[in-house]
Specification:
By secondary structure, this protein is mostly helical. It has 14 helices and two strands; from the N terminus they run αααββααααααααααα.
């Protein structure tokens, strides 16, 4: 049996003083640093005739209050390089209840050590005198000792499980196994490894799914942009829609061939193939039809307003439209061409127009 570690009541007292200090600082300051806590804490220790402590010891005490005694909630936030860290230590209970929890913890620890010392003594006596002299009392002590050791081991295993931060609660069944503490801890280690492996795999698969969704969205954007460019070049819109739907279906599971244009020339090949396979409509004939239709519209509008002969008026309109690269119906319908021609006719006299337009 290992010798029980020597217990220091000074730590118990210092933790109670620290609780009192935190309660005071939280009421006095809205924001503070660990240096502020250290100053007030050491002042309290000096008044009680104890030696002051260093910042590292204070940090250990603050950690114990949250993790071991569970009487505080510790807030930390790093503000960046050379900006320090924000801190706040909130008491979970009123300070009297915090004192009670700390005292109870040390009392239980004291009782456990007491039982261990008794157990060590009776084991030595048992080996010398045998179990006859101890009679029934010996059995009772052994039972209590076993229960105490088992309770300590269960607490140790639970603390280890907390440190593992299991995602699921499956580890709790391990506590009920009738095996040694070390074996339980080894099982927990393996369980954590398995859990970590599957957790990592799940995150990786999930990330991959998100990535392919984003890439498909980018693929659709590029193909739509390319399709519009080809439409402007005069390719048949209906055929382009069908063609690019097929292209998307082909590349949706391998979008990088389109997206990474520096490494792959698939998009260039698609554009060239599209231009070869889809015929352009007769653009020249279409433009001529548009010009003729606009000419007729303008002629009907202007022959009422102007006193020019019809033949001369038609020549004026033709000459005007020939100067426009691509006449549009929209400009005709909003009377842009009409007002331009009306202004031209008013500003120029008839004889000048006739001379200008003689063929």
């Amino acid at each position: 049996m290992e010798k029980a570690k020597k217990f220091k009541n000074k730590v118990q007292h210092k933790l109670i003083v620290l609780i009192s200090t935190l309660d005071y600082i939280n009421n006095k300051y809205k924001q503070y640093t660990q240096s502020n806590i250290l100053y007030y804490f050491n002042e309290n220790l000096k008044r009680n005739g104890q030696e002051p402590i260093k910042i590292k010891t204070l940090q250990n005490y603050l950690y114990k209050l949250e993790k071991e005694f569970e009487v505080t909630t510790n807030y930390y936030k790093h503000l960046g390089v050379n900006c320090g860290t924000e801190i706040y230590y909130k008491l979970k209970y009123q300070k009297q209840k915090c004192y009670h929890k700390i005292n109870k913890y040390f009392k239980e620890k004291k009782e456990i050590r007491f039982n261990l010392r008794i157990n060590t003594f009776f084991k030595k006596e048992f080996s010398k005198k045998g179990s006859v002299e101890l009679k029934e009392c010996n059995n009772n002590i052994n039972n209590k000792e076993k229960e105490t050791i088992k309770r300590i081991e269960n607490l140790q295993i639970k603390n280890y499980a907390k440190k593992c931060k299991f995602i699921t609660k499956s580890f709790s069944k391990i506590l009920d196994f009738d095996i040694k503490k070390n074996m339980k801890i080894e099982i927990m280690k393996e369980l954590k490894k398995i859990e970590y492996f599957f957790s990592k795999k799940f995150k990786k698969d999930n990330k991959k799914k998100k990535t392919i969704k984003i890439k498909r969205k980018e693929l659709r954007t590029i193909l739509e942009k390319t399709k519009r460019t080809l439409e402007k070049e005069g390719l048949n819109k209906k055929e382009l829609n069908i063609h690019f739907k097929n292209v998307y279906l082909k590349y949706k599971n391998k979008p990088h061939f389109i997206l990474d244009q520096n490494r792959y020339d698939d998009l260039k090949q698609i554009i060239n193939k599209t231009k070869r396979s889809i015929d352009k409509p007769n653009t020249k004939a279409t433009q001529e039809n548009i010009k003729n239709n606009i000419l007729n519209i303008l002629f009907e509008q202007l022959k009422i307003k102007s006193e020019i002969e019809n033949e001369v008026l038609i020549k004026i309109i033709k000459n005007y439209l020939n100067q426009i690269e691509q006449p549009k119906y929209s400009d005709s319908f909003n009377n842009k061409y009409y007002y331009d021609l009306l202004k031209l006719i008013k500003n120029k006299n008839k004889s000048y127009i006739n001379r200008k337009l003689i063929i």
